[in-house]
């Protein structure tokens, strides 16, 4: 099942074969319906990354920026999860180990971004 998912992700250009020195371990997570979700443990990479010094905006400022609008848009990102392209030079940091070799993400996924 994992090999099939990896193959499907390669066909969709979400991942590709890699030879990066930054590989992190794959953590397969089984869903309630029996499918597998690919997760990667990036804790090792996080410890070696330069932290972003920019602070997040305060919640009150974010709400004020909405400007009193009454209509807001919401999005369900279940099928659009891997649609944000990454810079080529950053792909190597997303590399993960699998039973069939190393792969990296070509589209952004949650976690290291």
UniProtKB/TrEMBL annotation:
InterPro entries the UniProt entry points to: DNA/RNA_pol_sf, Rev_trsase/Diguanyl_cyclase, RNA-dir_DNA_polymerase
Signal peptide limits: none
Bilayer-crossing regions: none
Name listed for the protein in its UniProt record: Reverse transcriptase domain-containing protein
Biological source species: Scophthalmus maximus
């Amino acid at each position: 099942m994992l090999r099939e998912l990896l193959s499907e992700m390669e066909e969709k250009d979400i991942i590709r074969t890699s030879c990066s020195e930054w590989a992190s371990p794959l953590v397969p997570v089984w869903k309630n319906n029996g499918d597998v979700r690919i997760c990667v443990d990036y804790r090792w990479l996080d410890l070696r990354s330069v932290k972003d010094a920019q602070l997040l905006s305060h919640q009150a400022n974010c709400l004020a920026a909405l400007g009193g609008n009454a209509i807001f848009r919401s999005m369900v990102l279940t099928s659009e999860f891997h649609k944000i392209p990454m810079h080529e030079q950053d792909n190597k940091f997303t590399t993960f180990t699998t039973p069939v070799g190393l792969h990296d993400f070509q589209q952004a996924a949650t976690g290291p971004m």
